[in-house]
Amino acid sequence: MSDVKLGVIGLGSMGLGMARNAIAAGIATKGYDIFPAAREAFAAAGGTPAASVAETAADVDVLIVMVVNAAQVRDAVFGPDGAAAAMRPGAVVMVCSTIAPKDAREIGRDLAEAGLLVIDTPVSGGKVGAEAGTLTLMASGPEAAFDLAAPVIAAVSQTVYRLGDEPGMGSTYKVVHQLAAGVHLAVAAEVMAFAAHAGCDTGVLADIVSKSAGRSWMFTDRVPHMLDDDFAPRSTVDIFVKDLGLVIETGHASKTPLPLAAAAHQLFLAASSMGHGQIDDSAVVKVYESATGSPVKRREN
């Protein structure tokens, strides 16, 4: 059992997995989500569901904020029912959402002014990593925050990169990483659509690429969804619309040309405009299927 008390704001596919691992590690965990079903799943895992953000944040040592974007982070911590006013001075806020570096710096500054310690802590590993407790954390913040949050960090992650003392650098690394993730996923969809339209057996082609030089983590993880025609959301198309938008925004700020990121962003935008925004991000393949008329789904034997 750990003496650290944890609160989790956002009990979706990522936050719920992280909360479950904290509970399994003996950390007393409260949680809140706007959706009742998420709170019920959290309670079934042994967590203590709260009726509000403020109730979740009260009397905890560490608060994980795992929501969709910077606007939701700000609302969670500084809104009318916000966490910042409810937390005791010196507690730690781990901002785990993928947000722009400038937003991470601003939110970190405002939380510090409220007397709270902040770790800018975007994560990678998806729903699978969250559930397994094997996330990679790209984290920046003061030493005291890492010391207090150590049991929570150990429970939810396998690899931690310490990237400095100031909020913003964790998010910078994550945004750069998302360029690779988004482009690799778009390329995987293009490869599979090309295979289908060229007459290849898509299942065989996927096996070849997965065992050859063209493989990537995104290919091996997401292509099975395309082959199975299974687009139940683990992560969504609209998440990559947002994340690649952050990539391009950050590239503009540093005057870095990012043509591949821009092309991938357009593909995810197209998938979203076709009505696929809230299904699995591997549904970017549907843009190609619509263009070619050739389904990627594996052949029936």
TrEMBL record:
InterPro entries: 3-OH-isobutyrate_DH-rel_CS, 6-PGluconate_DH-like_C_sf, 6PGD_dom2, 6PGDH_NADP-bd, HIBADH-like_NADP-bd, HIBADH-related, LtnD, NAD(P)-bd_dom_sf. Residues 168-288 form the 3-hydroxyisobutyrate dehydrogenase-like NAD-binding domain. Gene3D superfamilies: N-(1-d-carboxylethyl)-l-norvaline Dehydrogenase, domain 2, NAD(P)-binding Rossmann-like Domain. The lineage of its organism: Bacteria, Pseudomonadati, Pseudomonadota, Alphaproteobacteria, Hyphomicrobiales. This is L-threonate dehydrogenase. It catalyses: L-threonate + NAD(+) = 2-dehydro-L-erythronate + NADH + H(+). Keywords: Carbohydrate metabolism, NAD, NADP, Oxidoreductase. GO terms for molecular function: 3-hydroxyisobutyrate dehydrogenase activity. It comes from Rhodobium gokarnense. Catalyzes oxidation of L-threonate to 2-oxo-tetronate. Can use either NAD(+) or NADP(+) as cosubstrate, with a preference for NAD(+). The keyword Zinc-finger does not apply. Belongs to the HIBADH-related family. L-threonate dehydrogenase subfamily.
